[in-house]
């Protein structure tokens, strides 16, 4: 596997479904989507039926914590080994240029392997690859259990790089007609179209990596953001799938600690994780807010009253609104302070205004209180919701309370991470739920399976 340390990546050998596989049933959306809507996954299961599908090799998070978890993990590994033995996969070596039609825009990306030696998700990290939002360590153990010992990885990870001149993907877009098309099909559940091309031209492939290295050049990096000398370079910031990449990192660190043979460990497939690299400046890269739904409110617990009591007197003001559209207009039109957060409950819509917030973003103001409220068992849990319709439907269920949040400006992302560190968790989403990455490609991560 050809690698490049300065750009923290390598050229992968990818497993794609064989030519006879029904791709519409093969490709399934990221496992962390529709976590409050089991009916979505039931519909997917009915559509897939007995066809070979990535659905059989992933663990939709809607089912985490339910009975039969161990049996599901065992079935995932059995499906992976069965697909490998039955010739369900074909092997393709090289970078893969991806185009995803979702709505009126076409998002472009590059599938490559990221070097986990260059990634650190801990707060205050100065690594070349960093988390953009807080990593919840409690979310890693179930993911580690699924990945550890599995013969394959299937990525839904999307990583951002800051390339306003389009120097990395622009040449691939211009030459797409010269590239070998690997797949082209409509995704299930009205989720758009997916095309993939192998970057088999060596000269074109070698233009991609120097372009990334140029973005990571220290002098250029510091001049771009007006940073002082010695500021560590940030080349890649996590977009989607940070906990999946953190899981891969944890397994890699464990493998290193258990191996007496450093040379063999350094060449291990566990050192890398397959991911899609996406330019922050792609017109299709739209930052959407991630809303919150608190469910199972405790008897006698008044969330809004307790929120007001936790703030200085008169700092939180609540008012009723007539419609979802009125609420969205007030939240999306805010500029600075006070922070405005939409409320959705069984009785209707409302607005919370916080006059002197302790955080720069409304999501930070809300999340700080929700963390305390949930720790004090004020509710059974919280879910993170993409999309207005899902939020409105879930928030108006009895015993629930939905919070509508504004989107952050995407051009602030890299500078904020560099200067302030990670954002509050679940601050933004790259598009609506159905626009998320679908599982399409796989990669061998078990040395035993490679032998």
Give a description of the structure.
- By secondary structure, the chain is of the alpha+beta class.
- The chain folds into 2 domains: 3-286 and 432-450, no CATH class; 291-404, no CATH class.
- Helix content is 31%, strand content 26%.
- It has helices spanning 23-26, 38-48, 69-85, 140-147, 170-174, 202-215, 218-225, 242-258, 262-266, 303-310, 324-332, 362-375, 388-395, 413-420, 447-450; strands at residues 3-4, 9-10, 13-17, 28-29, 89-93, 96-102, 105-115, 119-120, 129-130, 152-153, 158-161, 180-186, 193-198, 236-240, 272-279, 287-289, 291-297, 316-321, 339-345, 348-354, 379-385, 401-404, 428-430, 438-439, 443-444.
- The strands form 6 sheets. Strands 1, 2, 6, 7, 8, 9, 11, 12, 13, 14 and 15 form an 11-stranded mixed β-sheet that branches.
- A hairpin with a 2-residue loop joins β19 and β20.
- The chain is globular, with a radius of gyration of 22 Å.
- The chain starts with a strand and ends with a helix.
Kindly summarize this structure in a few lines:
The protein is an alpha+beta fold. It has 15 helices and 25 strands.
């Amino acid at each position: 596997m050809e690698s490049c340390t300065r750009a923290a990546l390598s050229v992968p050998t990818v497993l794609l479904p064989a030519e006879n596989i029904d791709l519409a049933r093969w490709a399934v959306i990221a496992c962390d989507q529709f976590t409050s809507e089991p009916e979505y996954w039931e519909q997917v299961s009915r559509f897939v039926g007995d066809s070979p599908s990535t659905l059989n090799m992933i663990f939709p998070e809607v089912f985490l914590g339910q009975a039969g978890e161990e049996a599901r993990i065992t079935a995932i590994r059995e499906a992976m080994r069965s697909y490998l033995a039955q010739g369900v996969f074909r092997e393709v070596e090289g970078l893969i240029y991806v185009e995803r039609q979702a709505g009126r825009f076409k998002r472009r990306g590059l599938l490559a392997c990221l070097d986990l030696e260059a990634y650190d998700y801990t707060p205050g990290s100065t690594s070349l690859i960093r988390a953009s939002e807080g990593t919840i360590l409690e979310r890693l153990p179930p993911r580690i259990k699924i990945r550890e010992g599995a013969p394959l990885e299937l990525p839904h990870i999307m990583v951002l790089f800051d390339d306003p001149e389009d120097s990395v993907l622009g040449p691939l877009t211009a030459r797409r007609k010269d590239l070998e098309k690997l797949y082209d099909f409509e995704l299930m559940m009205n989720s758009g179209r997916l095309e993939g091309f192998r970057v088999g031209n060596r000269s074109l492939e070698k233009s991609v990596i120097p372009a990334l290295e140029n973005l990571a050049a220290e002098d250029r990096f510091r001049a771009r953001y007006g940073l002082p000398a010695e500021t560590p370079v940030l080349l890649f910031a996590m977009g989607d799938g940070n906990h999946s990449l953190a899981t891969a990192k944890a397994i890699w660190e464990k493998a290193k600690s258990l191996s007496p043979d450093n040379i063999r460990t350094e060449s291990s497939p566990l050192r890398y994780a397959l991911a899609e690299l996406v330019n922050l400046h792609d017109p299709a890269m739209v930052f959407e807010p991630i809303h919150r739904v608190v469910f199972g409110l405790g008897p006698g617990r008044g969330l809004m009253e307790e929120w007001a009591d936790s703030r200085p007197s008169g700092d939180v003001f609540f008012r009723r609104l007539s419609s979802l559209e009125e609420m969205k207009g007030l939240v999306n039109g805010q500029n600075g302070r006070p922070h405005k957060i939409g409320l959705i409950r069984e009785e209707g819509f409302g607005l919370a205004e916080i006059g002197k917030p302790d955080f720069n973003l409304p999501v930070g103001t809300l999340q700080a209180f929700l963390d305390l409220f949930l720790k004090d068992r004020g509710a059974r849990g919280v879910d993170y919701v993409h999309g207005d319709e899902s939020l409105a439907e879930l928030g108006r269920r009895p015993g629930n309370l939905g919070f509508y949040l504004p989107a952050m400006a995407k051009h602030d992302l890299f500078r904020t991470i560099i200067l302030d560190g990670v954002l509050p968790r679940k601050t933004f989403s790259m598009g609506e739920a159905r626009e998320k990455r679908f599982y399409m490609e796989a990669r061998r991560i078990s040395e035993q399976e490679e032998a």
